[in-house]
Amino acid sequence: MRRALFLLPLVAFITVAAWFAIGLTRDPSKIPSALLDRPMPEFTLPPLQGANVPELSADAVRGHVALVNVFASWCVPCKAEHPVLMRLARDKRLPIYGINYKDWWEDSLNWLKELGNPYTAIGYDDQGRIGIEWGVYGVPETFVVDRDGRIRYKHIGPITPQVLAETLLPLIERLEK
Amino acid sequence: MSALPRRAASLRLILGIALVVAGPIPAYAVLPGEVLADPVLEARARALSQELRCLVCQNQSIDDSNAPLAADLRVLVRERLVAGDSDRAAIEFLTKRYGDYVLLRPPVRPSTWPLWFGPLAVLATAAAGIVLFFRRRAAAAGPTPLAPEDERRLARLMNEGRDT
Q1: Which tens digits make up the pLDDT trace of A17-75?
Q2: Interface touch B76/A132, C-beta < 8 Å
Q3: Interface test with A, best of B53, B73, B75, B98 (most A CBs within 10 A)
Q4: Interface with chain A: mutation pick from B69, B91, B111, highest number of A CBs within 10 Å
Q5: CA A85 to CA A70: how far, in whole Å?
């Protein structure tokens, strides 16, 4: 009994150390979304003129499982994830909606011309106001929205083929059932 | 002739004092274009901004940060206040979108109790342990009374000495 009491500080230390060790494995730059499992914000955005796809609104996104991808031509990781989005768009797996975040119209248009346009519709958010409604704090960010218009997942940073195959596609399949 | 140097000296003194006073004032990131005309609203906006975390640079408030998103949020907070929001409503507007994470001072609620009261609990436990330890040692340090058997033996030994 007495000896067990002497072990108490050691046990307390190990508990706290384990707690901190788990904390160290998490990426502090990835902030969990406050909108998870909540309805997406109501919004309407003007189209990206010249991109030949319609404007974007919450009503357009609702009704089917969809990806909402926040991108900008000035964002380097967006360029990295672009081929993944292009492939997904070619498969016609699900609609991909783009929110063009704080971009110059001309840059954005050139960017899409050069790399291809994976988006079913693009909303032009030049002031970043709708980005704030979505809780965006860095691009690229990608949301998975279910049929009812609820945000079910938020991916922060570029979508890698691995993220798509291991996280996004299984979730999309589950939501489509 | 003597008035001029004196005036120069006092000017130098005033400048020196001004420098000392102005030196420690930190340079905030608020841009002139963002400042509200109403000083009362502006003061409220500044106070709120200092409580809100910049999500890009994380350990700075939006009042300190030069990040574009911080500037957007500063403008947003000011717009909410101009629209008649209370401080609490303006803060709530942001926590709804970015979560409690935007608050530099985490709110007190069951999930943050360990954060707020954990250190106090550790301190209290340690204090209790120390008090207990010293009490026990104090009790152990005093002379222990002899057991009844030892007492009898001592008395017998003392008596033996008296006989011879």
Answers
A1: 999 999 899 888 888 888 999 999 999 999 999 999 999 999 999 999 999 999 999 99
A2: yes
A3: B98
A4: B69
A5: 12
Tell which residue, A29, A42, A27, A51, has the closest CA to residue A119: A51
Taking a C-beta distance cutoff of 8 angstroms, is the pair A137, A49 a contact?
A: no
Class of domain A34-176: alpha beta
Q: What is the mean pLDDT of residues B125-138?
A: 91
Give the DSSP per-residue string, B19-83: HHHHTTS------GGG--SSHHHHHHHHHHHTTBB-TTTSSSBTTT---HHHHHHHHHHHHHHHT
Measuring CA to CA, which residue among B77, B58, B68, B95 is closest to residue A33? B95
Domain B25-107 has CATH 1.10.8.640: yes
Residues in chain A: 177
CA separation (Å) from A97 to A56, A57, A121, A126? 8, 10, 5, 16
Task: Give per-residue pLDDT as tens, A62-111.
Answer: 999 999 999 999 999 999 999 999 999 999 989 999 999 999 999 999 99
* Cβ contacts of A127 on chain B, cutoff 8 Å: 72
Give B52's Cβ-side CA count (13 Å radius): 33
- A29/B76 touch (CB, cutoff 8 Å), yes or no: no
Contacts of A112 (CB under 8 A, 6+ apart): A48, A51
Q: Which of A150, A146, A164, A152 is nearest to A66 (CA)?
A: A146
Domain boundaries along the sequence of chain B = 25-107, 111-163
Task: Please indicate whether, in this complex, the C-beta atoms of A132 and B58 are within 8 angstroms of each other.
Answer: no
